[in-house]
Amino acid sequence: MTQFSQLETQINRLLAHADIVHHGQNLLARMQKLVDALGNPEKNLTIVHVAGTSGKTSTCYFVASLLNQAGYTTGLTISPHVDTVRERAIVNLQPLSEKAWVAYATEFFTLVKNSNIKPSYFEFYMAFAYWLFAKLKLDYAVIETGLGGTWDGSNIATNPDKICLITDIGYDHTEILGDTITAIASEKAGIIHAHNNVYVYPQSPEITSVIQNRAMHMHAKLHLVKNLNTNFMARNFNLAQHAVNFTLKHDHQSFLTKPQIKAARTINVPARAEPIIYQNKQIIMDGSHNPQKLTAFKQYLNQKYPSPSRTLLASLGSNKLATLDQSMQIFRQISDYIILTSFQNDSLETNKRTSIDQATLISAAHQANFKSIKYIHNPTAALKTALNTPAQQLVITGSFYLLDHLRPHLLGYAP
Fold first, then answer.
1. CATH code, domain with 399
2. Containing domain of residue 379, as a range?
3. Rounded to an integer, what distance in angstroms lies between the CA atom of residue 294 and that of residue 26?
């Protein structure tokens, strides 16, 4: 067993004893106690905080990439991670080496253990990101919310110089965030604190008014970014660029040149409309798992990667059952041919997330009128079958946890 796996085992033993609190004031209170015990590292950081339903991760990557092109050092934390837990604390767009991760995470683990606070998985690694970025004295910390905003563990960052970005808002996690768009928007807008600068696209009146009211209440400055009628990745980049332009102006720095902007735009965002060539087949991987995300991905796919023949490999988590029929209809618009599969994620963060069962997936696929429907329980076997189809393009989507199983095989680092 490597030092890395040994450390992960020790951390997981500690986190397994945490009370499972998915949402609410108690969650944020525990996180506040934890960062208090760590000396409040978040207060020593200049933070870009990103909330929203769709596009958070790619927006975070674009912000960090643009800031790096401007010569700043950056920390970036995202969730869920795709390949390795080291994505929870990325420095200058690169995960730490295993050696560096073990050294820093061991020090941090000791501090948390001695605090007698039992954080959740998300809280532990969010606090670790704040602690590490402050320890390394990075210029900017780009922080993605985990769920919602108001009571999210990342929202202990209340610095007045914080920059907030709110991406497109839609229906997701309604069992936790509320079943109305105004309730969900209110949760997302909760990341706005006193005197923050806030960047957001105008959305529906219900959403925009909630954000405007929160900004007014917190004496924050709201910047409504011009709504571009273009694909979702371009929209996310444009939102990120507006926020970074503000930082450059604030810091009396020159705006980025066209070559720098182009370099920032071409950053690879793992499992977000990510293209690769494998066995002479074009593969597009994207973790879209709700109708809003899938609609945006479908439009981007058809614009950026049109193909005369396409196979779809997909699965959805059991927590997405309420929107299964809608999602399946969008799958049908991506391809006539679908291969369905399963997955199981044993992370403490997801509480053993599993996919929707075989019968339910197949039934929904039949209702969506696919020309060909296959179900292969093992995701690796499903991938092999998909690769052997004559289609020129393979699209893998529906859940990040499916990609967690398959992406390592496609990129050549599966164990």
1. 3.90.190.20
2. 274-411
3. 33
Using the 3D structure, point to which of 208, 232, 265 is the last residue of a domain: 265
Whether residue 261 sits in one domain with residue 299: no
Q: Give the chain's domain count.
A: 2
Domain edge (last residue) among 240, 265, 290: 265
Residue 228 shares a structural domain with residue 360: no
Q: Dump pLDDT digits (tens) for 19-74.
A: 655 555 667 889 999 999 999 999 999 999 999 988 899 999 999 999 999 999 99
pLDDT digits (tens, 9 = 90+) for 245-302: 999 999 999 999 999 999 999 999 998 899 999 999 999 999 888 898 899 899 999 9
Give residue 198's identity as a one-letter amino acid code. V
